[in-house]
Amino acid sequence: METYSWYAQLIKPSWAPPNWLFGPVWSVLYAIIITTFGTVFYKAFTGKLSWIIALPFVLNVLFNIAFTPLQFGLRSNALAALDIVLVLITIVWSFIAVWPHMRWVVYANIPYLLWVSFATVLQLTITYLNR
After folding, report:
1. 3 state DSSP class of 14
2. Is the pTM here over 0.90, yes or no?
3. Listed residue (111, 77, 84) closest to 95, CA to CA
4. CB-based burial, 46-58: b 16+ in 10 Å, e otherwise
5. Which H or E run includes 34?
């Protein structure tokens, strides 16, 4: 709880969404991610898709998992900002990699791209305001 009270005290832009919105949004996005990334990983494990194509998906999962410990565990806005930029980059990279093979994965992850784009701008703004 102490960590979340730390976050609540940060200066945020007026357009920042309320904290309660993050849980439902991420719940929907994680359902999309589990389905689409799971399909990519399954195809890579079974040899139907190259691991080079799956690489940005693997990195995206790692960067996504790292965000909460960086932001709330270390309380580092700067590391969280760097991490969310890497999440965004790996989403775009994964779209480019998988497009010729499974376009539906790209289409299904458009909400993920849009939310992370917004979250990246938000995190960069929070990092700037609290420097």
Report:
1. coil
2. yes
3. 111
4. eeebeeebbebbb
5. helix 22-45
CA distance 93 to 99: 10
Residue type at position 33: I
Q: What is the CA radius of gyration of the chain?
A: 16
Angle between helical axes of 51-68 and 77-98 (0-180°, round to 10): 160
Strand ranges inside 50-114, DSSP E: none
Task: Kindly report, residue by residue over 60-72, the tens digit of the pLDDT.
Answer: 999 999 999 999 9
Q: Is the pLDDT of residue 31 over 80?
A: yes
CB 69 within 8 A of CB 83: no
Please give the structure tokens belonging to residue 36: 């689409």
CB-based contacts of 102: which residues, under 8 Å, 6+ apart? 39, 40, 43, 49
Domain ranges of the chain: 23-129
Give yes or no for a contact between 91 and 116, defined as CB atoms under 8 angstroms apart: yes
Under 8 Å between Cβ of 127 and 80: yes
